[in-house]
Amino acid sequence: MAISVVMPALEMAQETGKLLAWRKKEGEQVTKGEPLLEIETDKAVVEVEAPGDGVLAAVTAKVGDEIPVGQTIAWLLKPGEAAPAARSGQTAPSARMTTAPDRAANAASAVVVESKAPPPQISPKARRLAKELGVDFTLIKGSGADGVITSEDVQAFSDAKSATGSVAAKPSASEPLSAIARLMAERTTQSWTTVPHFFVSRDVDASALSEFQKLSAARFEASGAGKLSITDVLVALVARILEKHPRVNSTWAEGTIKPNSDVNISVAMAVKDGVVSAVIHAAQGKTLQEICAKRVELTELARNNRLRPADISGGTFTISNLGMFEVDAFTAIIPQPQAAILAVGGISDRVVAVDGKPVVRPMMTITLSSDHRVIDGARAADFLRDLVSAIREPQKWLSL
Fold first, then answer.
1. How far apart are CA 227 and CA 273, in angstroms?
2. Nearest 10 degrees: CA dihedral of 90, 91, 92, 97?
3. What is residue 260's predicted lDDT score, i.e. its pLDDT?
4. Fewer CB within 10 Å, N- or C-terminus of the chain?
5. What is the CATH number of the domain that holds 8?
6. What is the pLDDT at residue 106?
7. Are 247 and 315 in the same domain?
8. What mean pLDDT, rounded, does the chain reach?
9. Residues 147, 234: one domain?
10. Is 181 within the bounds of a domain?
11. pLDDT tens-digit profile of 247-265?
């Protein structure tokens, strides 16, 4: 039976994906699970695996195309089998979308839609962008399926309009946002304006944490397991504490609280033009060495824009560590639909009181941002109390 190859939905609110490369040529044999194509979303560049075995045929998408989620772009066929459209005598609709230069040309020559024509179809994301840029989307020719106006069409129209504007217009000093930066702006704004955030902070003596990390790192490097970081130790500790606090590991879904069976820790990673969150799945059952190896792998993939679909989906709790940037403390915005995110500051020597006397200790500030619809103040405080206890004595929770 013929197997369709469609543009997958790799993240929430994704409307389209950009085809960057085919890993197989039309007519070649494909095996289920091997890399088939490479696409770019607003969040990352990912490899998409083949959904089944067969010969790649009826390819309708080309490199550089913007393709709506769910649209068929090719088929995997058995020997002697024909693509469904060919069998039915119909012509397969082209999945090729207008590329950026084409969109700019369309935008520059767009005309007003006649009153008798049906109203133009526009995606929600494109509508928001049009409002933000002050663009009349009825003047835009859509490049999406059935003429739907995409956010790329809106941006191209706005850019073309600026380029061909009157000479009297003042030059714009604004800087265009990359796809990742624009998505970050949209998501953080949505979360901040719709999620009731509250914050709980604790200062914790990180002496034992630092010593544990240094001792473990030396052993790991000697065995070739990779360079262990403070973040790795925190991922392991947080995952185990979250098992004791399932509400903090829950998600808010359409007015209900949904518990998650696994603890999937998203680790915020800085990349060019923004931040991506790569996920360490089922972290509660992984050893410290396994967590270290996975984090190293994900970091390398993120730096090279090669994160895969499974690498960026399914997170239930996020850790954002800015200690390496010499940040003492900060608060973070919750990535929906998660219920909490832990912001970690750097470890630095501070004067603190111990038994009524001033002493110097390596201290660290951690701040939990919580969704008050899911986590109340007492729950957040209980979680932080247990986490602080684990940070003070990591050897009780983790084995080398």
1. 26
2. -150
3. 96
4. N
5. 2.40.50.100
6. 37
7. yes
8. 84
9. no
10. no
11. 999 999 888 999 999 999 9
